[in-house]
Amino acid sequence: MYDGDIASVLISERQIKDKVSELAKQVDDDHPQSGDLLLVGVLKGAVMFMTDFARALPHPAQLEFMAVSSYGSSTSSSGVVRILKDLDRDIAGKNVVVVEDIIDSGLTLSWLLKNLASRNPASLEVCTLLRKPDAVQVDVPVRYVGFDIPNEFVVGYGLDYAERYRDLPYIGTLDPKVYTSGA
Ligand code: PRP
Ligand code: MN
Ligand code: MG
Q1: How many C-beta atoms surround the C-beta of residue 152 within 10 A?
Q2: Residue 95's CATH number
Q3: Is residue 114 included in any domain, yes or no?
Q4: Residue of 148, 126, 81 lying closest to 108 (CA atoms)
Q5: Does the C-beta of 77 come closer than 6 Å to ligand 1?
């Protein structure tokens, strides 16, 4: 699949699976209270993580999705975010966990958290599979982080480059020839 486009496997399928179980256990341990957790997955990148994470949780959770898009250049976030698909339900009084695939600049999430907080959930936390170093420059309170990764272009397990590679079962670094060839 995608022959030659992937320079290296950064996080294997096995490592992802183990980390998803570990994160699910942590989140479950921290939420002994009654009532289902409400997971909010951020489309499209978080879709693989969201479905695996929900199935790894030992207690029931409900699944909601939002789709957002940054205005401006497609390669860097501008911090101005537009809602493409909003939640279907009111989250007031719910224990909400935002599920993200990656926090890069942190701008998407920082905007999203303010937006969700204004809807008065009982609690609002973030679980992200990946985080890049630049994310720490924006103050985004993230309770659960799977892997801190170097500042390289990564794809797979939901993460895309120009909408491709989301279907890879692992996370890999993209060979620079893919984005420099102008194909
Ligand atoms: C990616 C990724 C995060 C966001 C992180 O989504 O899935 O949602 O960027 O970037 P930031 O921390 O710099 O804001 P993208 O906007 O590419 O949409 P997608 O999930 O549909 O691929
Ligand atoms: Mn995304
Ligand atoms: Mg993307």
Answers
A1: 13
A2: 3.40.50.2020
A3: yes
A4: 81
A5: yes
pLDDT tens per residue across span 168-179: 999 999 999 998
- Give yes or no: 5 in active site: no
49-72 per-position pLDDT tens digit: 999 999 999 999 999 999 998 765
> Global pTM?
0.94
Evaluate whether 159 touches 128 at the Cβ level (below 8 Å). Answer: no
Say if CB 25 and CB 183 are below 8 A apart: no
Residues spanned by the domain of 94: 13-152
Q: Is there a domain that residue 48 lies in?
A: yes
**Using CA atoms, how far apart are residues 100 and 114, in angstroms rounded to an integer?**
15
Question: Hey, which residues does 92 pair with through a beta bridge?
Answer: none
Mutate to test the pocket of ligand 1, among 102, 105, 113, 164 (most ligand atoms within 8 A of CB): 102
